[in-house]
Amino acid sequence: MQAEYDPLAALRDIHLPKAVSFWPPAPGWIIITTLIVLLCSGLIWIGYRYLRRQRIKKLALQRLQALQAQYQQSHQGKEIVTELSILLRRVALAYFPRKEIAGLTGKPWLSFLQSHGQDCDFEQVGALLLSAPYQAQIKADLTPLMAVCLRWIKQRR
C-alpha cells in the first residue's frame, strides 16, 4: 500500500511578528505628550501668577488697614498720606508693566489711578495725595482718601 500523502504535514508553523516595542513612541504620542506638558506648564504659570497677585493684594489690604488704625490713633496725616502713596505705587507696579507706571507723577499718576479704577474718584481726593507729603501739617480728613484707596486695591485682579 502506498502511503497517503498528508498535505497538512507539509505546512509550517505560523511565523509571529516581533512584539511591538514601547520605544520609540509613534509621532502622534510625541505630539500629544508635548501638548500635555505645555498645557500643564501654562496652567502652573497662570496659577503661580494668580496666587502671587492675590498675596500682594492681601498684603496691601493688611497694610492699608494698619495705616487706617494708625491714622485713627495719631492723626498724623502727612506720614499716612506718604505711606498711602507708596502703597498705591507698589500695588500698581505689581499689577501693571513697570514702563507704564514708573515715570508717572502728578496729574498723570492721578489720571492713571482714575482710569484703572471703577467708582474710584481720585479727582476729589487726588490733590491731597499729591500735595500732603510736602506740607508741614495736614488738617484734612483722610477717611475719603483711604476709602478710595481701599476700593482701588480691592479691584486689582
Give a description of the structure:
With 157 residues, this protein is mainly α. Helix content is 66%, strand content 0%. The protein has helices at 27-74, 77-95, 98-101, 106-115, 122-131, 143-154. The longest helix has 48 residues, at 27-74. The chain is rod-shaped.
Task: List key phrases describing it.
157 residues; mainly alpha; rod-shaped
Describe the structure concisely.
The protein has six helices and no strands.
* Rg on CA atoms, Å: 34 Å
Shape: rod-shaped
Structural class, judged by helices and strands? mainly alpha
Distance between the termini: 100 Å
Report the uncertain regions: none
Strand content: under 5%
Average pLDDT, all residues: 86
Q: Tally of extended strands?
A: 0
Main sheet overview: none
The helix content, as a percent range, equals 55-70%
Helical run tally: 6
Which series of helices and strands comes N to C? HHHHHH
Protein topology:
Blueprint: H1 27-74, H2 77-95, H3 98-101, H4 106-115, H5 122-131, H6 143-154
Helix pairs in contact: 1-2, 1-6, 4-5
